[in-house]
Design a protein that fits this description.
- The chain has 663 residues and is of the alpha/beta class.
- It folds into three domains: 298 residues, Rossmann fold; 181 residues, Rossmann fold (3-Layer(aba) Sandwich), CATH 3.40.50.970; 121 residues, Rossmann fold, CATH 3.40.50.920.
- α2 crosses α9 and α21 crosses α26.
- 55% of the residues are buried.
């Protein structure tokens, strides 16, 4: 147990907790929207955690060895904002509290990473927070194995009933239990109320048994008894497994008429109910007022970790040469000279001209990069042999050995993606992992949050089109490229050969504030970049991979496996006296960011035809109203890949026909 701020203090626990309650209630009332019930109910638990256990320094929110606190029940955001203001985070002022949920304020309806310094992750989509926390706890163990004595902290989560109902929570707690992430502690707000009413309307799970079945230790306490809560947290800190503490609470605690009801979940209490709560809880103060003695006690809690922070800095200084490496990792900076390996691989590939699937090309790149970038942590959702995501230098991460760099996530795509977000948010790690592109549907909420939070998370998605063949339409990602391309701040990269795959990996690794999806083939592809250049051509998103022989009469555009098909069409057109150029567009997002003059130069002013073995949606922006797109307008089918391309008319002949119809 950490130093107890309330020991010897004249300020009662009740008044400390009431400061949280009424700042939250008043902010929601002023905004005329929000969720007051959860902060009212969990104020006692949060008070115990922040005044007695949580290792943090409010003056240094990003201290690397701080305990992580994740408000998975993000709708209760005023709990976090109140705690920040009370403990003295510089960015959380009373004016920000008063402007809760207003345009231009940092106090958004749900906590957003990068908006407020204490938000370790963006929460609100229920279940994501607890799954992110698993990734953070895993990152702590991985880094502790490398930097003993300077990485040693807990990850705490406040989760609600909704978080535990969401399916992602099942995957997350299973993974955490399997890996015995003993420094992960979940505080469950067991208030038994959801928006529709009592939770027994919808769920009958025994949550304690569910966690126990997944390898957790569990405790059950009265969430309004600070001594019970403190004893449970102290015990959980000594657990040899991840810990879940069921905190039985009353939602809207203190509200005279509405406490314990769903009416406090998502609506302001109203003036009469707030006045009644003030009288009932003995808080006779005007809105947004915190008495000096209460504020002083809370500010003392905010400085409680200063000494630990200073001692930690002294330990880091004693790391010697490893200190610089630790600081580099936590700053998210890459080791010097790693790009040279990409250049050499490109040169070698352009000389040897291999014909391989880009998933195999990706493995080749990983075997080059992994030894040079030790912060790369790989994995796969039970598809390691198909995704080709395990570099030869990587050994497995296990519950007894966290010195490895490869995580066998099992069939847990949802949990895997969210855990990667947590690892990236923790710092010191560049996570990547794989599954089939069609299962980006399972990963999509986490991919969206990667982009929203600006995290360097790399999704290796193989079997990227109808080209995967016999597995059929359930596994053929017809619409997925289009669906991913509409997510802001996400690089969707579909390379055409080993050289482009190397360049796309280089871009993904270097993109410090943008996640990437690498869409890779199952089928073998020829090397098209036969002339070596040190320049990363994919960095512009699109480029002319083969210019027309003579005055350009048509522009053929493609990504991935269809670039070689476009090259075949170019040759057929040449045989008929038609000069066509081929443009490879591996990353639309990067291409769209180029100057208009460059884009016009690449695309030309002649008829344009695009080809991609996926949905035609989106290509109209490049081909224009008079162009054509050769692609999919239906789901796929089960058959060998060459037969599917012929069946669906995605052929060089179809491209030729489309060109001839337009010139």
């Amino acid at each position: 147990m950490k130093d107890d701020v309330t020991s010897g203090s004249s300020v009662s626990h009740a008044n400390l907790a009431n400061a949280i309650r009424f700042l939250s209630v008043d902010a929601v009332q002023k905004a005329n929207c929000g969720h007051p019930g959860m902060p009212m109910g969990m104020a006692d638990v949060a008070t115990v955690l922040f005044t007695k256990f949580l290792k943090f320094d409010a003056s240094a929110p990003k201290w690397p060895d701080r305990d992580r606190f994740i408000l998975s029940a993000g709708h209760g955001s005023m709990l976090l904002y109140s705690l920040m203001y009370l403990t003295g985070y510089k960015d959380m002022t009373l004016e920000q509290i008063k402007n809760f949920r207003q345009l231009g304020s940092i106090t958004a309806g749900h906590p957003e990473y990068g908006h407020v310094s204490a938000a370790e992750t963006t929460t609100g989509p229920l279940g994501q927070g607890i799954a992110n926390a698993v990734g953070m706890a895993l990152a702590e163990r991985l880094l502790a194995a490398r930097f003993d004595g300077v990485v040693d902290h807990y990850t705490y989560v406040i989760a609600g009933d909704g978080c535990l109902m969401e399916g992602i929570s099942h995957e997350a707690i299973s993974l955490a239990g399997h890996l015995k992430l003993s420094k992960l502690i979940v505080l469950w707000d067991d208030n038994r109320i959801c928006i529709d009413g009592p939770t027994d309307m919808t769920v009958s799970d025994d949550q304690a048994k569910r966690f126990q079945a997944s390898g957790w230790n569990t405790w059950a306490v009265d969430g309004h008894n600070p001594d019970d809560v403190a004893q449970a947290i102290a015990a959980a800190q000594k657990s040899d497994k991840p810990a879940m503490i069921a905190c039985r609470t009353t939602i809207g605690y203190g509200a005279p008429k509405l406490a314990g009801t769903s009416k406090t979940h998502g609506s302001p209490l109203g003036a009469e109910e707030i006045a009644g709560a003030r009288a009932k809880l003995g808080w006779p103060h005007e809105a947004f007022f915190v008495p000096d003695d209460v504020m002083s006690a809370w500010r003392a809690a905010g400085t409680r970790g200063v000494a630990a922070h200073k001692a930690w800095g002294e330990r880091v200084a004693k790391l010697g040469d490893k200190a610089a490496e630790f600081k580099r990792l936590m700053a998210g900076e890459l080791p010097a000279g790693w790009e040279k390996a990409i250049t050499e691989l490109k040169k070698k590939t352009s000389a040897e001209l291999p014909k391989v699937a880009t998933r195999q090309s990706s493995e080749t790149v990983l075997n080059v990069l992994a030894p040079l970038i030790p912060e790369m942590i790989g994995g796969s959702a039970d598809l390691t042999g198909s995704n080709n995501t395990k570099a030869s230098v990587m050994k497995p991460v296990t519950a007894s050995d966290f010195s490895g760099r490869y995580v066998y996530y099992g069939v847990r795509e949802h949990g895997m993606a969210a855990a990667m977000n947590g690892m990236a948010l923790h710092g010191g790690i560049i996570p990547y992992s794989g599954t089939f592109l069609v299962f980006t549907d399972y990963c999509r909420p986490s991919i969206r949050l990667s982009a929203l939070m600006g995290q360097r998370v790399i999704y290796v998605m193989t079997h990227d089109s109808i080209g995967l063949g016999e597995d059929g339409p359930t596994h053929q990602p017809v619409e997925h490229l289009a669906a991913l391309r509409v997510i802001p701040n996400l690089y969707v990269m579909r390379p055409c050969d080993t050289v482009e795959t190397a360049e796309c990996w280089e871009l993904a690794i270097a993109a410090k504030n943008t996640p990437s999806v690498l869409a890779l083939t199952r089928q073998g592809l020829p090397t098209l970049r036969t002339t070596h250049t040190d320049e990363n051509l994919c960095a512009k998103g699109g480029y002319v991979i083969a210019e027309a022989e003579g005055k350009r009469q048509a522009t053929l555009m493609a990504t991935g496996s269809e670039v070689s098909l476009a090259m075949d069409a170019r040759a057929k057109l040449k045989a008929e006296g038609i000069n066509a150029a081929v443009v490879s567009l591996p990353c639309w997002e990067l291409f769209d960011a180029q100057p208009e003059s460059y884009r016009e130069q690449v695309l030309g002013d002649c008829p344009r035809v695009a080809v991609e073995a996926a949905s035609v949606f989106g290509w109209e922006r490049y081909v224009g109203p008079k162009g054509a797109v050769v692609g999919m307008t239906t789901f796929g089918a089960s058959a060998p890949a060459p037969e599917l391309y012929k069946h669906f008319g995605i052929t060089a002949e179809a491209v030729v026909k489309a060109v001839k119809a337009r010139i």
